[in-house]
Amino acid sequence: MLDLPDLTLVAIYTVAHELTEMAVAECTRHVRFGDVKLFTDRPLRSQGDAIQIEPFADLKQAGVFTAYEVPRYIRTSHVLFIHWDSWIVDPSMWRAQFLDCDYIGAPWWYRDGLNVGNSGFCIRSKALIDFLAAHPEEFPLAMPEDEVLCRHYRPRLLQFKWADEALAHQFSFERTRIPGASSFGFHGMFNWPFVLTDAQIEARILRATGYVLKSQHCSEMRALLAARQSERAA
Questions:
Q1: What burial class does residue 133 get, using C-beta atoms within 10 Å of its C-beta: 0-12 exposed, 13-18 middle, 19+ buried?
Q2: What secondary structure letter does DSSP report for 218?
Q3: pLDDT tens readout for residues 86-104
Q4: What are the pLDDT digits (tens) for 40-77?
Q5: Model pTM?
Q6: Could you please report the per-residue DSSP string of 75-133?
Q7: Could you give all domains of the chain from N- to C-terminal order, each with its CATH number?
Q8: Cα separation, 42 vs 88, whole angstroms
């Protein structure tokens, strides 16, 4: 098991409760974190320090909570943020250099040097989240939060270090998965066929809420599964 005392695992969820707790379990199975903070609106079933919150009205409200409330609870130098559809998949891919960065997430598809990255599975330094929380007028929260931060605000945040693309690919994948390559973690239900068996996927589907089952990501995942099953049958 990895021992990462400078890293806090954070999950914030008022939907997809069981799936989020399964993702937390996957992470804590591989890593002994310095702290685990779970912000939820129902009694806790997973390992960690539960902070009770009210359900969010929308993604913007969730973003406001993440940006301006969560930093107050962090005592380690860095935070790993996960969602119900993101977790650690290959702990052997951990690199100490991840914690040399203030921000690291899966690379996108741009070619302009502002390609890192996705926040569905990301590490941010406490220095960065504290700074952004303290300067809401200069760096107001806007959606999609990760694109605004990493592509629009980043050029004005030169005191902070973003990971380069090569390191970010070792950290996580989302839409730019490299076939045959390994990453520490991932984000996206549409990537489940690459990290789970068919039986494991079905086990998660049984625990999914309408919010998950009606999502575009679920449709993408099912299409990929169907294509894979067709290939097997051919």
A1: middle
A2: H
A3: 999 999 999 999 999 999 9
A4: 998 765 555 688 898 898 888 999 999 999 999 999 99
A5: 0.95
A6: -SSEEEEE-TTEEES-GGG--GGGGG-SEEE-B-S-SSS--B--SSSEEEEHHHHHHHH
A7: 2-187 (3.90.550.10)
A8: 24
